[in-house]
UniProtKB/TrEMBL annotation:
The keyword Isomerase applies. One of its GO terms (molecular function) is L-fucose mutarotase activity. InterPro entries: RbsD-like_sf, RbsD/FucU_mutarotase, RbsD_FucU. The keyword Isomerase applies. One of its GO terms (biological process) is fucose metabolic process. It comes from the Bacteria. This is RbsD or FucU transporter. It catalyses: alpha-L-fucose = beta-L-fucose; beta-D-ribopyranose = beta-D-ribofuranose. Keywords: Isomerase. The lineage of its organism: Bacteria, Pseudomonadati, Pseudomonadota, Alphaproteobacteria, Rhodobacterales.
Amino acid sequence: MLKGLDPILNADVLYALRAMGHGDDLIIADTNFPSDSVARETVLGEVLRIDRPAAEVVRAVLSVYPIDTFVEDAAARMEVVGEPDTVLPVMQEVQAEVDAVEGPKMLGIERFAFYDRAKQAYAVIQTGERRFYGCFALRKGVVPPDEEG
């Protein structure tokens, strides 16, 4: 246990988040997402796990992970098949966590396009989220230097 860190952030997740650079994508996926097979194609090459609901995982991740402010698709969600404008409760909960760190409105990405983006990501965290369409992409931003005074 470390002070100041959300205890659900395990060592493997912290290692990956620290290793990522500006512009790298992180996928936070529900239990139904093919996380293991997709993760094998990512930079990290293996799936990470946090067995908690998606919004809790996003909150913990965003406590240490800056969202990119240079691109429009820095935060994204997998669209409901056949209903791209539908925003499910799990999506609303995650958007609230993104809003809490002054992040952007999440863009919807068609299911297979989301899979393609996920395969190009740095890492995939599979959550314990059992609700459908609890899959999100967050692009890493930068941590600015301390202000000199």
